[in-house]
Amino acid sequence: MKLVTVKMSFELGVTKVRKKRRWGKVIEYTSQESLVPLNDKEREELVKQVRDIALKSKYITPEQLAKRTRMRVSTIKVILKELEKDGVIKLAVSGGGFKAYVPAQ
Description:
This protein has 105 residues and is of the alpha+beta class.
């Protein structure tokens, strides 16, 4: 039996590597390090960064922002709700746990 190695990795910040054997293949998983804002200054910088990204793109999802900013999806969701209340972005599509936002212009 010949084993084939398949690599699956994220683009940012590799922290863990684990291997699993599935269906005769060795799959190597690498994970991404997610950062958590610690204080108000970092949170304000993150909100500003998310606002800039959201205004420049046609649409944005929490998962896209989490990859770009290296933050947790739950943190990004809270920030997107705040930006929606402020009127910077608006919810375009929602359903089945998926949400897509567009700039409110």
